[in-house]
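Hi F.,

I've been meaning to write this up properly since the lab meeting, where we talked about keeping a consistent format for the predictions we share between groups. The idea is simple: the sequence comes first, exactly as it goes in, then the structure tokens exactly as they come out, then a line or two of notes. No screenshots and no reformatting. I'm using this chain as the first example so we have something concrete to point to.
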Amino acid sequence: MSVKCAWATLLTSEHLLPGVVVFAHTLLVQHASAYPLVIMATTKLSTRARGILTSMLPEGRVVIREIEPIYPESVATGLAYARFNEVWTKLRAFELTEYGRVALVDSDMLVRRNMDELLSPPVFPEEEGEWIAASWACTCNPNRIATYPDNWIPENCGFTGQTLPQAKDPQSVVQPTKETPRPGKLINSGLVLLTPSKATMEEMIAAINTDPRVQEYRFPDQDFLADFFNTQTRHIKYLPYKYNALKKLPLVHANIWTDEDAVNVHYILDKPWNLGRPGSERNKNDPDAHVHNWWWQAFDHVKANLTAKGEGITIDKDDWQECVEKYMSL
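Output, unedited:
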């Protein structure tokens, strides 16, 4: 029996529209996913942005789902970035119970090949018990960001022990063990496969408001998921990097990265639309220029086909200039 599936992302502000538009185009048009994109929207998202999103593709391809934000009762004191206080709300994906399987995704991504195999069974031969699937957080901290944990070093990173070709095969990825240091068990929540469940959501909300570790999390939702699902009754299936290809991996883990295998690129840290084009006056020495260029090529294709029915998304010229390009460094 087929399972009803969807992609889901959180959107709380217009300033993220450049990323959402390009992601939606590459996911739903260029690489023709069979599943809709559910945009979880809080009241912070403007009426105009909602209209742009629901009308840019045929009806039903992009769905707006109204949600309430999640804020822990205790204030987090160790966030890596202040903006991370908003990311708890991503967990509302567990409430999308009209779907049997959901891939929670970030909108700062670029799809380079159809990846519906993640949602179409069997991704894994055995799916007993409650589980999520995700790839690792890279805990090497190559930029030496001061707000990152001290134990985020290459020796503790989940990617460090991976080798080709195992690193790109869901069945052959080297999974963590009980002895693996905690950083090597952490996930990056840019892409998380999950089974929606109101009961699980209620348990998570209770834990978010009572677990003392919540105050110390640097990366709230993904640190929480790593702890919540690494138990005797729940578990994490670690995915190959290719489905959540962090843009820093070519520099930090070059032994497992190949351009061809990067199915879905995740533009963590600085966003390409904020930095400007690689080689521009504003962005002369971009260490990630090669990967950023992929995003700009997709953006240019979207812009060139805005009014070409069937060739891409459809957005009114004024909406494009005032709600998409407005938030970019062109």
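Notes:
The chain has eight helices and ten strands.
The chain has a mean pLDDT of 90.

If this format works for you, I'll send the rest the same way.

G.
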